[in-house]
Amino acid sequence: MLADLDTSVVMPIYYQVARRQGSSWAFIHGDTFYNHYNLPRFSIEDTFAGFGTSLSLVAREFFRINGGKEGYYLANILDKQYYYCGENPYDVKAKLNELGIIRPE
Fold this sequence. Notes:
Elements: E1 15-21, E2 24-28, H1 44-50, H2 55-66, E3 71-76, E4 81-86, H3 89-98
Antiparallel strand pairs: 1-2, 1-3, 3-4
């Protein structure tokens, strides 16, 4: 999904990516790039809970914005903002760039 070198992105933990395929949601829990406070690695469920939400609540918001269309979605779980990115992993990078989260290559 976002695992190959061409689609790797560095973004704050409160941005979370999901993929809708068929009737299911797959949330993509990335690797830690920098851990200034040496905190333990949390599960994706604990990460969402730490921001006052859950996987199911975010999936519901994704469905609400685009009717459950297949493709990649982005959630800002800090500010509770949800975006449809598109049908391929590069669309996630484009959305992050549009939002000013990453710089163009």
